[in-house]
Amino acid sequence: MKGKIQKDLFKKMVRGMVVILMAAFFMTAIQMPVFSEPKTYLARPAKYVFYFIGDGMGIPQRTAAGKYREDRLLIDSFPAQGVTTTYAANQFITDSAASATSLASGVKTNVGVVGLDPSGRPVKTIAELSKEKGMKVGIISSVSIDHATPAAFYAHVSSRSQYYDIDVALAESGFDFFGGGGLKDPADKKKKSKNYKGDALELAKRNGYRIVTQKDAFMRLTPADGKVLAWNDWLQDSGALPYAMDTRTKDITLAEFTSKAIEMLDNPNGFFMMVEGGKIDWACHANDGTAAIHDTFAFDDAVRVAARFAEKHPYETLIVVTGDHECGGLTLGFAGTKYGSNFEILGQQIVSFTKFDQEVLGPFKNRSAGTETFENMKGIITENFGLKFTSDGAGKDPMVLETHEIAQIRDAYNRSMGGEKEKSTDTQTYLLYGGYEPLTITLTHILNQKAGLGWTSYSHTGVPVTTSAHGVGAEIFNGYYDNTDAALKVMSAMGMDPRPYYAETEVAYKVAVNF
User: Fold this and answer.
1) What pLDDT shows up at residue 424?
2) Coil vs helix vs strand at 232
């Protein structure tokens, strides 16, 4: 009897220990990081690597574009789909400089910093490592080619606004193809450099770059032309390509830049190419949903060019698509429409906010010495945004403006006609217009809201983005991981040791970049 009691007590103790251990395990599991471990690719490395970065392209931007077209984007059909965090070293909500540096090198850095870690040490990028490996390298962007995201692959400066130093870094990079937007300060007109080396464009020419700005000449380029720096003849704003919805047939599209780069870079040693859809971000800053969607399509079209190349080289090509951060706080739902979505009405908008400002509203302001009236503007609004001030009586039309919406537009019109200063320090005015043209942004807000889209910010947000992959090593891009891990995964798929690399001449770099 005594032995049985002892045996029962022992069983209870064992069961109690098991319960305690299981509880401890689950408590530990709850506290464990949710990030997946960076996976290492051990098979034959990719010979051709495309790294697509949709600036400002978060999950809602991709979803909105698919919903508008009623068909998912090509990038959403890729077999590997991951979720990627974007925070900077010193701030939860990042900017393009810090995020692109992480995507390019696997190293966290501070907001505004390009190609350096938080202490000022220059980090080597995948593009630079690819060049050292004997591969050809191409950098493409729909914004200026010295903007933060493209710069993070070839420059090392303490501030993204050091455009001259970035332009010099481009000229001295030795990369084989640069295409898209232009250069913002090749002559150092802003006098921000402590290391002036003369005009950066002339330096690029001396270093063997052929500069091309006309589409016909661009299309005639062949690999025999050597290194190329090309941009579109019409740079719509701040040295960038026009928004996709404003593009003319004589403009070079992001897809055409990508196609030509493939032709120029293809060689027995392979290539690395970074392609940025930069104006997705700019459209989202301005809360222009239609422009953002069309630029997302243009970005997806560029990826489609790479996918066609991959079909010919299925066992040698890797395509990775990600975003550097979300922008605008885009929400796929608006209180005014409750559960309704009418994305198709976004098609009523025929120009981007920038083209409306430059080619419609600007001239309207200057006409007739200010004698134009709100009544004269109504027809122009209907023509460009589809918003109607009166009903034709043919049933419920979502494009007909409500009384409160007309009041909003009239107030914004008066502010625009009064020359209200942008970047207002008044909090309420900023929340209404974000420093943009009051009339224009009010029109995009109302149209977007009628479609069932809402915005919470004129800046970036901290939500994760989607990373998609296709081809060699694509499976390691599944899961949930940080943007630094995205870079390490690309390195691994290329046969590189997936770790951060640092430049050898750190002291010289610190002097050069004014750190």
Assistant:
1) 64
2) coil
